[in-house]
Amino acid sequence: MSLLFPFLGAKKRRNILVDKEFQLKYVAKVFWFTVGMIVLGGVFAFLFTTLIFIKRGLTTYIDEFRLLALAIFLTMVVQIITAAVFIYWEGLYMTHKIVGPWVRIRRMLEEIGNGNFSLRINLRKADEFHDVAAWINHMCDKLERLRAEGKLCPDSEKKGEEA
Asked: Which residue among 20, 28, 86, 91 has the highest number of C-beta atoms inside a 10 angstrom radius?
């Protein structure tokens, strides 16, 4: 079931569109690129078919030519519809694996900037940025250790010492 519907796995994704603008922009770019490639392939198929029929005498085989041109057109339409569905679902799934962790990392960095070093980033297995999360978690461990040893001073204490 999870192969057909990746959002229905054991760890449910509560919000598929985490960063709607980024995700839909990415999906749209991939979609239009794919549509362009399908149309380009259809145009070449039509041109090659036309050249073959012209060489053999287009007027003799006009019914076959029309039938073949219709088949090329319908094949392109089916490919575009299939691509649209696949790209939409797979594109949202792939971008969610990037945007979801990125949003969590940004929020955590804000908390670290506010002096909260006790947080840790835990990402799902399929998510991206595991190395970045590990580096941030390691940095928080070091900052907590430095604070416990008294080697880390808040900015306000430093300003008071300088005066």
From this structure: 91
* Gap between the Cα atoms of 11 and 51, Å rounded: 55
Whole-number CA gyration radius for the chain = 28
Q: How far apart are CA 49 and CA 37, in angstroms?
A: 18
Q: At what angle do helices 130-148 and 62-113 cross, to 10 degrees?
A: 0
**For the chain (length 163 residues), average pLDDT per consecutive 10?**
51 69 87 91 88 79 84 90 88 84 90 88 88 93 89 57 49
Contacts of the segment 111-116: beta carbons below 8 A, 24+ positions apart: 112/136, 112/139, 112/140, 112/143, 115/154
Structure tokens at 8: 């229905």
pLDDT tens-digit readout, 107-120: 999 998 888 888 89
* Interatomic CA distance for residues 124 and 122, integer angstroms: 7
Determine phi and psi for 115, rounding to 5 degrees: 95, 5
* Mean pLDDT, the chain, whole residue set: 82
Quick one: tokens of 14?
């509560």
CA–CA distance, 72 with 61 (Å, rounded to integer): 16
CA 33/CA 38 separation, integer angstroms:
9
> Which two structure tokens, joined as six digits, stand for 57?
């005498």
